[in-house]
């Protein structure tokens, strides 16, 4: 805990990024403070990052695909990971976006139409084969599957002829007798046979049926399924995606020997909106940790999925990086991902290759992806656009991401020394000279002050305030509350307040520095080294002694006595002021300690009726409300969940699943009013487990949540352990 004395106001502004550093391969550099950014999700402690799935969002040319390609390439080269890519869109018909990178790593590019994937392979289990064939039928003729046709399909899959798709169609058209006569089975199977014949004789011929139909190898570093030659509206795409995801789940994950695997979904909205594949992908996302699998979901924006699917996807991805989007899309994405306001405002202004990264519940920062020339060549997806620009204009478009030859050497990833910002920074006011070097030894700290003042000079005052609060908090933690580093941040905050027109706050901050003994609040570039002028004034001149013949004037003693009385009265008044100030200081100290301990959140896990229930209390920024939430995973088999706080109630009774419907987690929340940021709140959570029956009152617990990230059991008074929450 940081204790703030009464001489300095408490720092309550939200942090823009976490001090956390992650293990793993380098990705780029923080735009906030210049630090290198590294991340290999599988190497992060599971308590900090429960799942390793990632979500990449951004408009065309934002660099989202380039970032994921470079990230995956480094994982394969340095950690021997394996990957499967579903590449449904390329910039030309010759090859998909991932083809060059895949071939450079010694992988296999499976191009649609040149490789025949056998969905009837005996390497798939019986249930998987049926599910896969159902997916192909649903992609071609959704109405063909009925209760009777499903039975005919099951009967045909048991035929010896059903080891190829063509043989399966024959078994449907000419079935053998079973529980029902062959004539009845043939009539029931007509619709599904017609649907599957599109893959054996119709427009989709060659994708799943042929003399060389087989399955891809599972021992390559990367396999890319390239659909770029297909029409984007073709039913072949969801059909192929269904077949590939089944192969991934049932064959590749079981036979792969890599320590960790990656499944990349390029243009993922096509996969996640297809009934043939959505359930499979959701299952892989949910079980990724057990399967040693990371899914990398790449798409333009979450609004393509609709609110429900977008929220479900965001819950299952602990990592997200968001490139440039329009303001409206940025607001939607920010709300779903839970990004801070400064990050949402930053998204529309990001340059190509920059992204707002969110890792786990706390880390948020702006990262610039850094690649070398080889990686730029392998990940380039703008050749056609660049050729057109070369014809129309002499100047080429700027590179989509920063190129840095020294950023990623072949053997070890090391970053070059930090480079000071250029003098041409576009600011319309004078920045102080590089005097931070007189206070600090770390050159990147100079950049932090520079970034704050640059943001303020461009009118982004909220962002500048957030960045200044981050730097101040870091330096107080590292150097102390009264250190020169901390004082310098007060002056920077005063400059920001001055630029924003808040002169009262600027004067207050400078007065705080003056009370701390720092040249009366002068900016650090205006401070003087004249020690005598600051702390060693010249001794006063002695008063002249009266002449020997001088006599005291009448009334002098009386005036001197009056001065004594006035001095005593002044001393008494000063004592009262000191006592009052002491009380005020104590109150301020308590308030500041309370502010320093304030987290605005409290989360704890409960076990009620054998069901693990994650709960969370989150205080609003204005201190007027608290959102109380409960989350139960679908694996817990809860039948009933209810939460109550005051007069607010939310509940859910789980209904039996319909055929083909996947179980979903339960998430409930209520919003209750509070009088200030520090008010504790209570929540009653009732849960009915697998044996609960309607009409029976379920077990419940009442918890008191406090904004300093603590919680107690309201019935026993015992403190409860804080936990990470999916909420």
From TrEMBL:
Stored InterPro entries: P-loop_NTPase
SUPFAM superfamilies for this protein: P-loop containing nucleoside triphosphate hydrolases
Location of the region described as Disordered in the Swiss-Prot/TrEMBL record: 532-557
Protein name: ATP/GTP-binding protein
């Amino acid at each position: 805990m940081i204790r703030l004395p009464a001489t300095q106001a408490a720092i309550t502004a939200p942090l823009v990024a976490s001090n956390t550093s992650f293990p793993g391969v380098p990705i780029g550099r923080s735009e906030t403070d210049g630090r290198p950014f590294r991340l290999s999700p599988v190497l992060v402690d599971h308590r900090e990052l429960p799942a390793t799935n990632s979500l990449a969002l951004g408009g065309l040319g934002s660099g989202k695909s380039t970032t994921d390609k470079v990230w995956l390439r480094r994982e394969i080269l340095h950690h021997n990971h394996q990957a499967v890519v579903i590449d449904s869109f390329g910039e030309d018909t010759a090859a998909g976006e991932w083809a060059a990178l895949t071939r450079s790593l010694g992988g296999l590019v499976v191009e649609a139409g040149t490789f025949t994937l056998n969905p009837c392979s005996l390497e798939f289990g019986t249930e998987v084969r049926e599910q896969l064939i159902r997916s192909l039928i649903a992609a071609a003729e959704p109405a063909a599957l009925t209760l009777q046709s499903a039975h005919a399909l099951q009967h045909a899959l048991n035929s010896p002829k059903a080891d190829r798709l063509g043989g399966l169609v024959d078994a449907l058209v000419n079935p053998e007798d079973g529980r029902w006569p062959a004539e009845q089975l043939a009539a029931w199977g007509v619709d599904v046979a017609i649907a599957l014949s599109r893959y054996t004789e119709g427009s989709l011929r060659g994708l799943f049926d042929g003399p060389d139909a087989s399955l891809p190898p599972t021992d390559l570093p990367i396999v890319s399924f390239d659909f770029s030659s297909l029409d984007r509206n073709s039913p072949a795409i969801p059909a192929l995606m269904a077949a590939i995801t089944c192969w991934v789940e049932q064959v590749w994950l079981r036979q792969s020997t890599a320590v960790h695997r990656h499944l990349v979904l390029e243009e993922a909205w096509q996969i996640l909106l297809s009934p043939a594949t959505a359930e499979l992908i959701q299952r892989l996302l949910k079980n990724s940790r057990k399967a040693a699998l990371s899914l990398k979901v790449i798409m333009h924006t979450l609004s393509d999925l609709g609110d429900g699917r977008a929220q479900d996807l965001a819950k299952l991805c602990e990592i997200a990086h968001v490139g440039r989007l329009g303001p409206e899309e940025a607001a939607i994405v920010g709300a779903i991902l839970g990004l801070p306001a400064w990050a949402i405002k930053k998204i529309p202004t990001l340059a190509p290759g920059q992204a707002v990264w969110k890792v786990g519940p706390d880390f948020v920062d702006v990262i610039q992806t850094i690649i070398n020339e080889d990686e730029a060549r392998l990940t380039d997806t703008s050749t056609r656009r660049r050729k057109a620009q070369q014809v129309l204009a002499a100047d080429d478009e700027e590179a989509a991401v920063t190129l840095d030859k020294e950023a990623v050497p072949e053997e070890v990833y090391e970053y070059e020394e930090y480079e000071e910002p250029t003098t041409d920074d576009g600011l319309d006011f004078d920045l102080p000279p590089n005097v931070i070097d007189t206070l600090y030894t770390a050159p990147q700290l100079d950049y932090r002050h520079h970034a704050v003042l640059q943001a303020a000079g461009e009118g982004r005052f909220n962002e500048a305030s957030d960045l200044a609060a981050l730097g101040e908090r870091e330096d107080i933690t590292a150097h102390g509350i009264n250190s020169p580093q901390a004082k310098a941040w007060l002056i920077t905050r005063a400059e920001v307040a001055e630029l924003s027109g808040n002169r009262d706050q600027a004067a207050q901050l400078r007065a705080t520095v003056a009370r701390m003994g720092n040249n009366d609040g002068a900016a650090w570039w205006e401070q003087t080294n004249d020690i005598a002028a600051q702390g060693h004034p010249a001794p006063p001149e002695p008063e002249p002694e009266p002449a020997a013949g001088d006599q005291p004037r009448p009334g002098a003693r009386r005036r001197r006595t009056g001065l004594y009385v006035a001095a005593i009265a002044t001393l008494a008044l000063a004592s009262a002021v000191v006592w009052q100030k002491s009380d005020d200081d104590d109150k301020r100290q308590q308030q500041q300690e309370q502010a320093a301990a304030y987290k605005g959140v409290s989360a704890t896990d409960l076990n009620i009726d054998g069901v693990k229930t994650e709960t969370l209390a989150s205080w609003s920024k204005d201190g007027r409300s608290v959102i109380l939430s409960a989350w139960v995973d679908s694996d817990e088999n809860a039948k009933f969940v209810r939460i109550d706080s005051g007069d607010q109630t939310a509940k859910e009774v789980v209904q039996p699943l319909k055929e083909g419907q996947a179980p979903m987690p339960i998430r409930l929340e209520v919003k209750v009013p509070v009088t200030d940021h520090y008010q504790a709140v209570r929540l009653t959570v009732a849960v009915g487990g697998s044996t609960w029956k309607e009409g029976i009152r379920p077990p419940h617990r009442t918890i008191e949540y406090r904004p300093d990230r603590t919680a107690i059991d309201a019935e026993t008074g015992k403190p409860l352990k804080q936990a990470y929450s999916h909420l």
